[in-house]
Amino acid sequence: MKVLIADDQDIARMVLGRTLQNLGYVVDEAPDGTRAMDLYEPGVHQIVIADWEMPGYDGLEVCRRIRALGDGAYTYVILLTAKEDREDRVAALQAGADDFITKPFDRGDLSARLGVARRILRMEGELREANRKIEESREQEVAIGASIQRSLLMARPPEHSSRFEFAAMNLPSRQIDGDFFDFFVHSDGVVDVVLGDAMGKGVPAALVGAGAKSTLLRSLSDQVTRSKGQLPSARLIVQETHDAMTSELIRLNSFVTLGYARLDTENWTATFVDCGHTRPIHWRAAERDTSELPGGGFPIGFVKRETYDERTIPIGRGDLFVFYSDGVTDATGDGAEAFGTERLLTLVQRHAADAPSQLLYRLREAIRTHIGEAPLEDDFTVVIVRVGPVGDPWDARTRTFRSELESLAGVRDFVGPHLLELGFPLADADALLLAVHEATANVVRHAHKGIEDATIEVAVERREGGMRALIRYEGVPFNPPKPDEPDIQFAENGGLGLFLIDRTMDEVHYGVEHGRNYIEMIKNRS
Asked: Are both 365 and 441 inside the same structural domain?
């Protein structure tokens, strides 16, 4: 064991050093406290014996600096002193001293006190090793939980569907939890979407979530077998899952919240069973409005005799569904305000025309902006589904631009290639591109005077029988009268552009939606 001694008296330091060597210790010596701190190595010098009164750093300051380092193994500090005053001894203990040796020291007293130091250091080492093993075990648990999440809890969205477009994401929090989602594809036009959350944190919650997914799949399989190949109702699948799991969940003092939705483009319906989970958001393309699906059931494992109901609503082409965990709406930043359902509804309403992957990116960035530097306290889990057919009427592209004339070139570069990519005839694409350019220019010139950092959102999409462009912006609403003929005199102020828009588009609509102005232009296929 290595001991560092610090004493400005040469003879006293020499005597102490030889005594320690005779007792079997390896000794480093320093003539004062400042030099002692230069020599001191945490984890190497397990014992430090310092004179109380020295030039430079005195013994108390040496104690304080050693304790301030606070890294690695514990260092046992003994002060050499002739002080007997109680207040001095209290001050030394508060500075971090472990023991005192009265000068001139007695060899037997010194040996006994060093024996105490070794016992304490040994116990500290054993405690540190136990803590290391606990931390290692915790890290292994986190790794196991993360593996369970990746492999068992988070399913990959279906690919190559002609009726649905999917996007899904899970951002783990600092702790593993029981979020899970899955997709049961019954046909090209019918898919079940499941999103749930097992109570608690860590591997136990992840295992309960994995068990819930497995039981759901087994219940589905059993129901299909009993119904001789007929598709069982969503309610029966959830009810059988509840009946199979509840007794064990009650015994474990756990439960599972669950949302089970069946999206059916053969009958154009959505059926939902709620088991205490967050209510999915439904954006209706025909009305261009957003609402939450009805809910009201208890979590699975919460009430033993719960009976679940299913609710069915009509859906249409282009409709959008957003399934999410409470980690989204409960996300809290430094201001202690949760992101909340209203922010989520507003974001979905504003950007529902986006592709699901784009909307998912916007939501993730909105959450990150809201929480700032704060970590996620709960998993961020989102599944977004667009009802199709995909690639025919509802493919969309969206981008946001700064409200300045310099952005017009970027608008053209964005819109033109996407119109061709979406399969529009060249003549129709050119007409819509011209209309988008003119409408955007008018918004830049007239809507944002005096508004700093204003932006314009431009979206283009394919629709049944043609194509559609939507320009969203904040500021002064733009709703000009229908022009009868081009006014060349006022062309620079937008008169000619308005005439071109009116003559080249089959429909043009101006309005306000959820606090944002919009210009909607529709061109039917020629």
From this structure: no
